[in-house]
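WARN retry 2 of 3 for item q-0093 after timeout on previous attempt; input resubmitted unchanged.
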Amino acid sequence: MGVFLSAIAPVALIMLIGWLTTKYIDVDYATLSKLSIYVLVPALIADSLSKTTITPSNALRLASAVVLMFGILYILAKGITIAFKIPANPAKSMVSTTLFSNLGNLGLPFVAFSLGEEALERAVLVLVFTTILMVILGPAILKNAGIGVGLKVTVKMPLFWALIAGILLKITGYQLPLNLGEGIKIMGNAAIPIALIMLGVQLARTQFGGGWYELLACAMRLLLGPLVAIAMGLALNLQGLDLQVLIIESSMPAAINNLVWVSEFGGDRELVTKTILLSTIFSFFTLPLILKLVTSNYLSQFAHVP
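OK item q-0093 returned
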C-alpha cells in the first residue's frame, strides 16, 4: 500500500494545488500549455534521451508495441461504437479518447513517482511515439483530413526535433559546452509539476457529470488500453521496466489534447470534456490496481525468455 500511496499522493497534491490556484488566480491555461508543449516537454525529451539506458532493440520493440496498440485499439473502439449504434460525432470522439491518453500531464509524473528515473526514460519514449502518432492520425480520425496534414504538423513540433537532438547526443556522446546540458535538465524537470498543475486547473474548470456515452468512453479508455498493452507487450517479449511502463502509460485517462483535436477538426466537445474529467477521477482507483499488477510476478509467467 505504501508504494501506491507514494505514487498517487504527490500527483494528487500537485493537482490539488492547481485546482485551488484557480480559486484565487486567473490562471492563463493557454500560456501554460504552450510553455509546456514548446519548451518544457521538449527539454525533458532531449535530456532523457541523451542519457537513456534503453538499448536500441528495446526502443524498437516499444515503438512497435505503441504502433500495434494504436491499430488494435482503433479497430476495437470503432467496432464498439458501431455495435452500440452511436451517432457519428460522439462515435469519433469516443474513438479519439480511447486512442489518446494522458501520457504527459499524468503519465510521466505517475511513472516517475512509482517506478523511478529509469522508468521515466521509457515513459518519455512512449510519449514521443504516441504523440507523433496522435498528430499524424488525429486529423484523419476526426475529419478525414489525411495523413499528409499530420506529417506537416509533426515536423513543426519542437518535441520531434527534441527527439532527434536527444538521439544524436546519445549516439555521438557529445557534451554540450558551458554546462548547457544542466540548463536543459532544469527546464525538463519543470515539465512534470507544470503538467500536473495544468491538469488540476483543467479539472477545476470542467463541469462534473455525464451519461452512458461518457461512462462507455471511460471504460474503453481505462480497460481496453491496459488489456491491449498487456497483449502487445507479451507478444513482443517486453520485460521488466519496458513492459511495466507500456502497461501503466496505456492505463492513463483520456488526454486533455482530445479537446484540441475536437475543437480543430470536429466532434462532440461536451462528451470529450466530461470523459476527460470522469476518466481522470476513475483512474485514481484503477491506477493503483494496474501498478500492483505490473509490480507483481504475475505477468512474468507469461513472458518468453529466450
